[in-house]
Amino acid sequence: MDAPDTPESITLRKNAVRASMREQLGSLPHAERAARSAAACARILKSPAFQSAVCVMLYMPLRSEVDVMSIALEAFRLGKIVCVPRVPDGGRSMHAVEIKSIDDETMATDALGVPAPRSGREMPQDSIDLIITPGVAFDLRCARLGRGGGFYDRFLAKAQRHSTAIGICFDFQLVEEIPTEANDVPVHAVVTDRRAIEGSASSPVLALPNPSNPQQSSGA
Length: 220
Hints:
The chain is of the alpha/beta class. The protein has one domain: Rossmann fold (3-Layer(aba) Sandwich). Helix content is 27%, strand content 19%. The protein is built from five helices and twelve strands. It has helices at residues 7-26, 30-45, 48-52, 69-77, 151-159; strands spanning 55-57, 81-86, 95-99, 107-109, 115-117, 130-133, 137-139, 144-145, 164-168, 174-175, 189-191, 196-198. A seven-stranded mixed β-sheet has the order 3-2-1-6-9-11-12. A hairpin with an 8-residue loop joins strand 2 (81-86) and strand 3 (95-99). The longest helix is centred in the N-terminal third of the chain and has 20 residues, at 7-26.
């Protein structure tokens, strides 16, 4: 019989996934990252969740993450409200701040090394319709593995009642199962450059489920 998971064993398993993903992300060529990012973003742009959203929250991508700036540009073009995260220096809470453009005058690198708005209107969480969520890895149940700071888990725990959260990643970051704990918050769906996973077959947020697999839609 397998030994029950302990907090220590779960942490070790999570860190093993993080190490594997860091290696794979580090070897991804720039041109391939751009092409894969475009494919993943295209799935979100044609989803009902994006098309109906008035306020969209996304992230400022690091070099290893899916570049979601095409989603930001399309949201601007459509007149949607766009916001991105900002974490006050030394803070544990993440805030959503509205941006009107993406340039060096608007953004500055924060204490965590992530681009964040210099200023802007803080958006109440209940006003955000769609949260495009990064992750080190996701699994087929739409569980999410972050970098370990817990910022998105705390934010999504408050926002999940009124916002749709869609994880986005490269296809190799979608694994069979991620070890989870009580404070780990899943997303409603996951999109990669090759497929889309719905968290609930009865309430799809990307597209109609694939009849052969009600939780997966490769064309979403």
